[in-house]
Amino acid sequence: MTDATAQLTTADGKPLKAALAASLARSRRRAFLLVAPLFLFVLITFVVPIGQMLMQSVYNDTFSTAAPALGKWFDEHPPGSEIDESAYAALASDLKLMKEQKTSGSAGTRINYDISGSRSMFTGTARKADKFEPPYKEAILSVEKKWDNPNIWRAMRSASSPLTIDFYLAALDMTRDDAGNIVSVPEGQAVYKMLFGRTMMLSLAITVICMFVAFPIAHLLATLPLAKSNLLMILVLLPFWTSLLVRTTSWMVLLQSQGVLNDLLVWLGIIGDDGRIQMMYNRTGTLVAMTHILLPFMVLPLYSVMRTIPPAYVRAARSLGANSFVAFYRVYLPQTLPGIGAGALLVFILAVGYYITPALVGGADGQLISNLIAFHMQKSLNWSLAAALAALLLAGILALYWLYDRIVGIDNMKLG
Amino acid sequence: MTISETDKSFVVFDHVQKSYDGETLVVKDLNLSIGKGEFLTMLGPSGSGKTTCLMMLAGFETATHGEIRLGGRNINMVPPHKRGIGMVFQNYALFPHMSVAENLAFPLEVRGMGKSDREAKVMRALDMVQMGAFANRRPAQLSGGQQQRIALARALVFDPELVLMDEPLGALDKQLREHMQFEIKALHERLGITVVYVTHDQGEALTMSDRVAVFNDGRIQQLAPPDELYERPKNSFVAQFIGENNKLPGTVEEYSDDKCLVRLATGELIDATPVNIRKKGQETLVSIRPERIEFKPEMMPPGAHMISAEVLEVIYMGDIFRTRMRVAGSEDFVMKSRNTLGQTKLHPGETIKIGWHPQDARALDPM
Ligand SMILES: Nc1ncnc2c1ncn2[C@@H]1O[C@H](COP(=O)(O)OP(=O)(O)OP(=O)(O)O)[C@@H](O)[C@H]1O
Ligand SMILES: [Mg+2]
């Protein structure tokens, strides 16, 4: 135990630690270069858009850039100040600017988020902005009387600061009162919280139904002889190969009030012709169609776990004195938990974000939060609110994922 | 039935047949009676139906025909969990999501035993296999040999009278296997349980068993204690399957009830004991163990026939010499002679005379 152990060296005399680090660094570098293109791809296609979405949900400068003078006026006058001639002067100068730069439409849209009908006020007034002379208040009010509505001014005040949490407030059914305090929106206008709740409940229901339906299918798949299980597997995968629209439409054909199932029930005399059951264009429609579409995502992870469970375990349990129910419950079921966990997480997350099927078969009653996000993206063009809703959804899912990890453990999950 | 009769036939297979597909019989007319406290081994090549028999006894497969009795009671319709049979599986089948102690407590729990009784019994069973320190480990954290012990303890913890083991040592290395053979045998003797053991390792079968049932092609070829199986195989399958064997094909020249003369293809005559030949002129296969061959005339009984052999190869194996010779045209005739002081050294190329006691050569059916 002399110098030889004090510092180990390689054959040509380099210190062993340095040589090891050098050789590892080389392989690390190579590995990094290999994954670099994919890493960049993921960065550009996922991280950047999601970051942009998060940004958009708290930052919207369409109004503040279109109306700099008003921004200045709001800065100088605290909330609750009287809307005086100086305010209208600022408004008049901004309207002129908007006319020059053709931004009255987008600025109006931004205010329209809060007060519907205000977009036309902007475009209409801006069109005549060149002719405004002092006193501006009268000039503007003569064009459009609604400008003296204090709500418009409150909305413009909040829109003139680009960085805002107002979209999150809106997404949580909250707003600001005259003094700028955060309050709940009046009963009847609240939609989002209820929709978030409904989305969670429906997704949970779909997940649970999928679990119960998929379990026997996966078990059969895992235990049947190969030739038969392959056929069954094709049946399970068939939904993947047919268009989503075709599948959804066929559910319509089956379930609508003049549809196959109702006709059958009437024909059998179980229900009267006037008592046809409404199974489409409501929550039931969403539930049925989405369960069908998401079922394979539960079957596949379950199947891949079940296939690896040797029949010897259940046999061992039986030989030790457990009847078939106890053997299933105490020995087989716990071993399928990784598959159940993976399938449930997959189905739940997919269901929470699902959009086409509820849009087609959900009616008014079966709409989910994603349908509202789509609405704000495409119809109302309130992208910031859409982004805020999407961000809340993402946060909710991450919270659930964290909870799942704490309770079940992500390592215990087996996706395939 | 009297007590002694149920004791002698604790487990009975009565004309049992089994087919999986309705076309071929995997087990053909099995008749077997196992005594209480006996250690019976089912030995046979792969696919001979050993596991199938065990599974029928455990209740996981149903007999297509015939009756299986346990303690005098027909158990054909009794479900596995009501048979009270302990079982050790080939890959142990320890429940991976339970600790060692929970695994052992499982059979006691489903029998409704109280917690304190359960714990005491589990500890006793663990101590029995010297695994007391591992109660809280998961099966995945144990070595193969340790898992084997736990599987054994779990099969024994609920005091079954009958324990089935399907190749329990198949996954262990040679040394550990020999050690575990010894331990299983010791447990069997200490607890007085009946054991039905399946293996395709003949060494294991011979060292552990009271009786061995040699399976081939769905039938028991011979059911006998190990020494009888080795020394007096009833047919050429058994002779070949158990231990090393020299085979000499020939025709029966002279025949009496306890002795016969066989003429080899080369024209030489050898002595043999008739086993399953009935008359003169029949084709036969004479089987002789390598260690029963003599090459010194003074060791031979008077009047015994000797034939010539050419030494091809002598291998020194420490305790014995293994000599390969050309005999009656066959080049893989083997003789084993003990390495004793003053043993005659043989050299390749030498031609010697060999012979044997007539009862060591068994004239069997030709295969
Ligand atoms: N579940 C089954 N379905 C159909 N055939 C089977 C089944 N199990 C076993 N067999 C067939 O029955 C025969 C006997 O099988 P068995 O498992 O009893 O053999 P074994 O003696 O235990 O062999 P090994 O030493 O390889 O374990 C084999 O030919 C096998 O192919
Ligand atoms: Mg087997």
Overall average pLDDT of chain A? 87
The beta-strand count of chain B equals: 19
CATH topology of the largest domain in chain B: Rossmann fold
Query: What's the overall average pLDDT of chain B, rounded?
Result: 90
Explain what you see.
The complex is a heterodimer of chains A (416) and B (367). Chain A is mainly α and 416 residues long. Chain A folds into 3 domains: 47 residues, no CATH class; 101 residues, no CATH class; 221 residues, Orthogonal Bundle (MetI-like fold), CATH 1.10.3720.10. In chain A, 70% of the residues lie in helices and 1% in strands. Chain A is built from 20 helices and 2 strands. The radius of gyration of chain A is 31 Å and the shape is flat. The two termini of chain A are 52 Å apart. The model of chain A has no long low-confidence stretch (mean pLDDT 87). Chain B is of the alpha+beta class. Chain B folds into 2 domains: 233 residues, P-loop containing nucleotide triphosphate hydrolases (Rossmann fold); 121 residues, Nucleic acid-binding proteins (OB fold (Dihydrolipoamide Acetyltransferase, E2P)), CATH 2.40.50. In chain B, 25% of the residues lie in helices and 32% in strands. Chain B has a 6-stranded mixed sheet, with helices on both faces. A 5-stranded mixed β-barrel of chain B has the order 11-12-13-19-14. In chain B, α3 packs parallel to α5. The site of magnesium ion has 2 residues of chain B, from α2. Magnesium ion binds next to α2 of chain B.
Task: Give a nutshell description of this structure.
By secondary structure, chain A is an all-alpha fold. Chain A has 20 helices and two strands.
Please outline the helices and strands.
The complex is a heterodimer of chains A (416) and B (367).
Chain A: H1 3-6, H2 16-58, H3 62-66, H4 68-76, H5 85-101, H6 104-112, H7 118-127, H8 136-143, H9 150-159, H10 166-171, E1 174-176, E2 182-184, H11 192-223, H12 226-241, H13 244-255, H14 260-268, H15 283-306, H16 312-319, H17 324-352, H18 356-361, H19 369-378, H20 383-407
Antiparallel strand pairs in A: 1-2
Helix pairs in contact in A: 2-20, 4-5, 5-7, 6-7, 11-12, 11-15, 11-17, 12-15, 13-15, 15-17, 16-17, 19-20
Chain B: H1 3-8, E1 11-18, E2 27-34, E3 39-43, H2 50-58, E4 65-70, E5 73-74, E6 85-88, H3 100-110, H4 115-128, H5 144-156, E7 162-166, H6 174-191, E8 194-199, H7 202-208, E9 211-216, E10 219-224, H8 226-231, H9 236-241, E11 246-255, E12 260-264, E13 269-274, E14 283-288, E15 307-316, E16 320-327, E17 330-338, E18 351-354, E19 361-364
Parallel strand pairs in B: 3-8, 3-9, 6-7, 7-8, 13-19
Antiparallel strand pairs in B: 1-2, 1-4, 4-5, 9-10, 11-12, 11-14, 12-13, 14-19, 15-16, 15-18, 16-17
The complex binds adenosine-5'-triphosphate and magnesium ion.
